[in-house]
Amino acid sequence: MNRVRAKLPEFCRTPAGVRVRARSPCTTYKKTGSIKSSDSDSKCSSMEMSFNTFQSNPDSEMSDNNSNNNNRVMVVVDPSLDANCALQWALSHTIQSQDTIVLLYVSKISKEGEKVNSEINQRAYELLCSMKNMCQTRKPGVQVEIVMQEGKEKGPVIVENAKQHKVSLLVLGQRKRSIMWRLLRICWRKKSRSRVVEYCIQNANCMTIAVRRKSSKYGGYLITTKRHKNFWLLA
């Protein structure tokens, strides 16, 4: 008797094992920083890490003085909008309620006599008191110290006071200058705020940050440190 063999459909005659090419899942990375610059991403990461962790990992020479994790932050103030911007940035980005703010006002010694110097010091003291009240309102519980100094060279005075008060962070305001102003400064050889800021960044024994508001259109701040210049911080 002949055996009848059923003809299977074509799809049943394919090998039982099917080889599947699986793609590895895409790894998504969440942006943790908001600093934009033309440098590589690794530099941005190191900038963000050092900026965000300076409070928890201060320099070794500061550790003994800040053993209770309370940081001392010095902000250089004056009547300008740049200094006010620096203070506002420090309050919103670096100051915690258990920290201490040192407000430093540095004035040049006037050659016009004691009366003029006395008037300048009085206005400076009133400004410091006003900023102290503002700090205590914005950050209840924060300790605020006010310091007034005089000197011919503003940069060295700031650096020396930062060292004496054992601060872990120094914050200064920075102003954008036009090309014409820069050319005039070179011709006149006058010292400017930008040179004071650069001197402090290069010579201070603590982390030093210069802050400038980006613009009303784009928002954020431009941050300058010893290793990074004009990083755009979107916050």
Automatic annotation (TrEMBL):
Gene3D superfamilies: HUPs (3.40.50.620). Residues 71-212 form the UspA domain. This is UspA domain-containing protein. It comes from Capsicum baccatum.
